Amino acid sequence: MAIKLALPPLPIPSLLPRIAPKPEHAHLKHSSPPFFRMQRRDIGKNRMAIKGSSELRQQEGRGGEEMVITRLLFCRPHFPSSHYYTREYVQKYPFIKVDDVPFDDVPNIIGNYDICIVKSMRLDANVISRANRMKLIMQYGVGLEGVDINTATKHGIKVARIPGGATGNAASCAEMAIYLTLGLLRKQNEMQIAVKQKKIGDPVGETLLEKTVFIMGFGNIGIQLAKRLRPFGVKILASKRSWDSYLQNSCKSDASLTQNGMNDDLVDEKGFHEDIHTFASNADIVFCCLLMNSETADIVNKTFISSMKKGALLVNIARGGLLDYEAVLFHLKSGHLGGLGIDVAWTEPFDPEDPILKFPNVLITPHVAAVTEDAVRSTAKVVGNVALQLHAGSPLTGIEFVN
Q1: Where are the alpha helices (DSSP H) in 63-148?
Q2: pLDDT tens digits along 108-121
Q3: To which H or E segment does residue 403 belong?
Q4: Would you say which domain of life the source belongs to (predicted)?
Q5: Which position among 16, 75, 134, 386 has the lowest Cβ density within 10 Å, counted as fewest Cβ atoms?
Q6: pLDDT of 78-111, one tens digit each?
Q7: How far apart are CA 314 and CA 322, in angstroms?
Q8: Does domain 169-364 correspond to CATH entry 3.40.50.150?
């Protein structure tokens, strides 16, 4: 079970190209940590100390000096900005090497790396069993559904995600959700046709004003989405498996801040997992913001969509597998589903000839909700800092362990 943490200030200074490295890390260029052996410490505070390992030693010919190299493996080919920006961030540190390789090459070379950034690749038991030198598998973001966590644990490999609240990932995803929603309400596809046909004043769209929205999964993205939706004058329903970290009383505009820094007046009605069908039946727009796991796969099925108001919109910025493809297609054909906005799909890259894309009330973006300059650079900074901490044998901070 993932352990939530409040992220401490990252200890490594920014290394954008125009900024030189700070002196507190200068010693890393001239000294090597002692023999490394992975040691788990302070797990209650969600930090891990690595005491280094002899297998990390690698000869690099620089005047006969021995240099310890910490190697990061990015699984290509998607999300190229992740390895570009991480490589840029650590370029001042010659002992940190960042490689990106095609998916098919990963099983053959994964044994040479200390950290693996999975992105959209699936790391099964076979691949993980070859990672003899691996200390950490992490996602360039939140979702870890493609990693066999049990196998990683058996092999002594830690698995972690990067919480989206601190990197701007969640805020970027929330903005994309609103972009898709406004595109559906104002009939973006039909507007493009009208432009080509030289029509003026057509089509007639709708506003967000006075709509009821249902945020299914009120985590980091859900909170950021609610903050941005509130000024539109909407009623917000939200579901969460546990509201223990939030105020339980009715929402008031003068409510105090919760421990998550959220005003409790962001949500008009709070519900739990068993309330999702009731909330869906009352909402004009349903936002899917859930984590993907065995319990949430295909959660938006025929039963769920049938419970939605006729003509309601469905927006998914989390994972494609949360939606049952056949159920979505069926309800688009029947006209029950008023519109679909997705940044994630059942198979990626998405087939441009898929029947779902033939509907004028469908908008799709290429899994770019979190791919903004600020979010990608902030995430690259976390990855770079973790690599530097691992190299120095320091506790790993800024990430959330799941094993």
Answers
A1: 80-89, 106-109, 125-129
A2: 999 999 999 998 88
A3: none
A4: Eukaryota
A5: 16
A6: 888 899 999 999 999 999 999 999 999 999 999 9
A7: 12
A8: no
